[in-house]
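Hello,

I think I submitted the 6-O-phosphono-beta-D-fructofuranose job twice by accident. Can you confirm which output corresponds to this input? Input:
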Amino acid sequence: MRVGVLTGGSDCPGLNAVLRAVVRKGAQVYDDEFVGFRDGWRGVLRDETVPLDITAVRGTLPRGGTILGSTRTNPLLLDDGLDRVRGTLARHRLDALIVVGGTATLGVAARLADDHGVPLVGVPKTIDNDIPLTDRTVGFDTAVGVATATIDRLHTTAESHKRVLVVEVMGRSAGWIALHAGMAGGANCILIPERPFSVEKVCEWVESRFRATYAPIVVISDSALPESGEITLRHDVTPPPGADPRARLSGVGEWLGREIERRTGKEARTTVLGYVQRGGSPSPFDRWLGTRFGLHAIDAVHDGDWGTMTALQGNRIARVRLADATSTLKTVDPAQYEEASVFFG
Ligand code: F6P
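Support: Only one job matched these inputs. Its output is below.
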């Protein structure tokens, strides 16, 4: 078969593991040929390709990012997007497409497969871990590792100066990174978008941690909101045509640090983790997960199981409908958040 492959949306560690496994199994077991599309759906729209064979994927397992490049381009936002996608697939005589992406990229894939008959399968990746029906997405474990290692470092400097250290992590609409890294790093409190927080309560926790002679670490998601509903967006950009129109986040951590200082009189500093969470080498788990997803994605192609996505369920790689996996977001379960709250304050 001739198979096109693209990686779309925010990059994350582990994408190359997926590509490597798809190509190795496809070429070795099924005698497939591959066409890599540059920069997500944009490469399909513009017919920009990258060589993708066993030589191209050799040595890429420990490499972060994606050898194909990535953008948030959504072809369905353009009037002629669908025709251009179809045109490119026909020009390359492709029998199938493998789409590695987050909710937005896979949402496009679901519509192309179900509404327009495009033969494709999806693989879920995002540091946010917010895709339903899979226990984990590729990239999440590495991001949690980076955030946890940072929290460990911040503990020592917070203790030396008796300061509050606020750590803003990514996650967009889901607090998974904050919850996992906050628990693993022994945070004084964890603030997530699913649960608007009381600044008063946060200040109480901070003060109680100082009374216990420890310096508090406050972990906050980039989309967490105070109960009053205020949030500071750092950027307000107009996206180019076809790009994802979502606002860029960040700022709530700085805002909270200032509020804590004002209300408690304690010195506070904010660290915004930002893109370090998405950069660098994938963790062993993400290499393992990306590899397994890649192996199962190429099997799904050969089974003609169009419109499906690989999913980790327990230790098993399952196939779920892309439409089901992209119709909603997987947010933090309130019961899991309650577990963590025992350590607040
Ligand atoms: O979706 C992954 C993510 O890293 C979010 O956690 C974050 O809010 C966003 O992407 C940042 O996106 P961009 O790369 O467009 O700045």
